[in-house]
Amino acid sequence: MGSRPRRRGRPVDGIILLDKPTGITSNSALQKVKNIYFAEKAGHTGALDPLATGMLPICFGEATKFSQFLLDSDKRYRVIAKLGERTNTSDSDGEVVETREVKVNMGDLERSIASFRGETMQVPSMFSALKYEGKPLYEYARKGIEVPREARKITVYEISLLRFEGQEVEMEVHCSKGTYIRTIVDDLGEMLGCGAHVTMLRRTGVSGYPYEKMVTLEQLEALLEQAREQDIQPRELLDPLLLPLDTAVQDLREVNLLPVVASYALQGQAVQIPNAPAEGEVVRVTMGEDNTFIGVGEIDAEGMLKPRRLVRAHDV
Q: What is the C-alpha separation between 47 and 141, in angstroms, rounded?
């Protein structure tokens, strides 16, 4: 007698803004949320360190097609750094490798912080998830192996000092994709001559998502328990928390198509549009008077809209 096929989960489409707790990996948080929703397909949009908390958008189903746009979006953080100690991971999860006296005044600190604003080149931490020859850098770092990393261009739009008490410095940072806050803190410590490492990191913003829309694992688990107690399907309580697919591309310019034109685009065909944006621009594509989201496209050299990522036809 053959074994019963394993249930893969239900089709769920949308985005949940998880308030990731400290002490677990982003992938572990993703798996917990995926199980709560009993979702067939899910992915997160940019890992947070185990130490870090805060906004971790999790995409379900069709939303995973657009997760790259959230990976590429700007981020906001609140960080607390401890001066006087440098660690091998640049955060408090690592081992202290150097201790120095702190002789820092407010003027020195503000000038040093200001130097990080604007475009700079940053060398990623060895304890990042970036890959070298197919393996994450942190795997090499845990074995004590240092591998070459290329400096990458980042932009710090704003970095502001919130508090300076004793050896603690608290800051807010608004930055581009690929910015490592722990590297900024380590560089700041070297600039000040005393060393520094991250003791608290919280992501407060991704793209234009509102902070207030975040939900915790405890809240999701409580809704799951409530559904059991009321003998109703968990989706009745959980699914209203999902944000629409197109919120992942809310920063893109919208191009609205007539339904007859959209029908060709939904088959993957390039379509002519009036007043086309510049060549190479990626746009959010909607259809009809109700602006139904159908995907994203790119403008080619002839001013045609070329579909790049499309929502499944039955979801439109």
A: 18
Q: In the predicted model, is pLDDT for residue 222 greater than 90?
A: yes
pTM for the model: 0.89
Q: What is the pLDDT of residues 2-30, one digit of tens each?
A: 555 556 889 999 999 999 999 999 999 99
List of residues 6+ apart from 134 with CB closer than 8 A? none
Spell out a b/e string for 81-111, using b for 16 or more CB atoms within 10 Å of the CB, else e: bbbbbbbbbbbbbbeeeeeeebebeeeebee
Q: Identify the residue with better confidence: 173 or 124.
A: 173
DSSP state string for 68-129: HHHHTS-EEEEEEEEETEEETTSBTTS-EEEE------HHHHHHHHHTTSEEEEEPPPTTSS
Mean pLDDT of 229-256: 95
Given a contact cutoff of 8 angstroms between Cβ atoms, the answer to whether 21 and 251 are in contact is no
**Structure-block tokens of residue 223:** 């809704």
- Per the CB < 8 A criterion, the answer to whether 128 and 180 are in contact is yes
| Active-site amino acid positions | 49
Both tokens of residue 87? Answer: 């660690």
Pairing of strands 14-20, 152-165: unpaired
Q: Which residues contact 113 (CB under 8 A, 6 or more apart)?
A: 159, 160, 161, 171, 188
Per-residue model confidence as pLDDT tens digits over 132-177: 667 766 676 676 777 777 788 999 999 999 999 999 999 999 999 9
Q: Which residues contact 24 (CB under 8 A, 6 or more apart)?
A: 50
